[in-house]
Amino acid sequence: MRKKIIIGVLIIVVANFACSKIIKRSDAPADYPIVEHSYERINIIGETSNKGNFDPTVEYNSDGTVGYLIYSGLEQPEKDVGFHNIKYIHTHLAKTNDNGKTWQFVKRITESTSDTVESPIFTKAYKLKNNIQGMWHHEVPTLVHDPDDPGKEWKLFWHKYFSADMPKGTERPRILSHSWIMLKEADSPEELANAEEIKLFGTETAVSPAKFNFQNIIGKTSNLSTYSEPASLYYNKKIYVILSYFGTSLRPELVLISSRDHGKTWEYIGSPLDDKDTKYLNKDYKSFWGVALAEEGGKVFLLAPPIHKKYSYQGTFIFEFENIDSAKLKRNSKGNPIVIKYIKRSLSGNINSGQSDYHKYNIYGGIIFPQADLDSAPAAAQIFNTKEKIINEK
């Protein structure tokens, strides 16, 4: 996937479950807890996306009385509902007043719309017409609450890119010359739907520049690169964002940045994981993409789904930061990252799963965990409550 610099739409989902258990892994470089039990499917009241929901991000207000779930709503024209080359990827908002026990659909925040763009390099690569017809996709959102920025307390980051129309059933290529990490800001999550779209982060591949690039620090990879999979956290009066950077294998794939002034300016911090870390955990892992940031008990954690060379996203590893301001994870005496726990896919098969998120006030649901199961088609994309905290109570 990274070699082609094409990021396919994720396919995802549901199931019936077994009993819960936490087991110790004995065939790994070091023992760590593996969470392996049945998870509870989240049914969002009023949600109608016919291909399901994915890419969850959960955030609460300051006192934890109201929670918000923002996610990708996947839709297909009814005549094409059996195909997995998703045409519409919107950003949807749901709300809870009971710490994640029930969720109610609120509204659509961004709309997937049709358009025509020009991109000579992708026209040639995919044998497309000069005027490429397709859809604007909005996916992998992350919501953060910044209580110290009046009128702009709620900030939404997401990946907006152009996806070319293709014959039925054929994967839709991403036109990376039209790809950015976007920002919306408002005084409430509901008002994000009306907020201005800002091109915040982008690479030199994009036809129009974003406000921030960072390639002068991490290095330009090629003419084909992009940022995707943003995650965010407000901690100690700063906003932290971590991006997945898709380029050559010689460059870091995770880009951690921070802002001291509510997102007006950004500082590059570093990359908390590298290729050595992936191989340490499993020789068949390619890297970690689509990570999340979370806080519990005053500590900051990285929720990281590994990419298997054959099976794509496979569950979620949880690591603790020793110092997030230096992108430094806690490591053992040999320099390897210490695993707090591993959240395993609960359904059969090796389909995409694990781009998780967590908030300390999501008391009922705990870590939320997306996973795919084609048996639940056409709504293959689903989100689950694991009911797992990051730190287990003793």
TrEMBL record:
<protein>
    <recommendedName>
        <fullName>Exo-alpha-sialidase</fullName>
    </recommendedName>
</protein>
<dbReference type="InterPro" id="IPR036278">
    <property type="entry name" value="Sialidase_sf"/>
</dbReference>
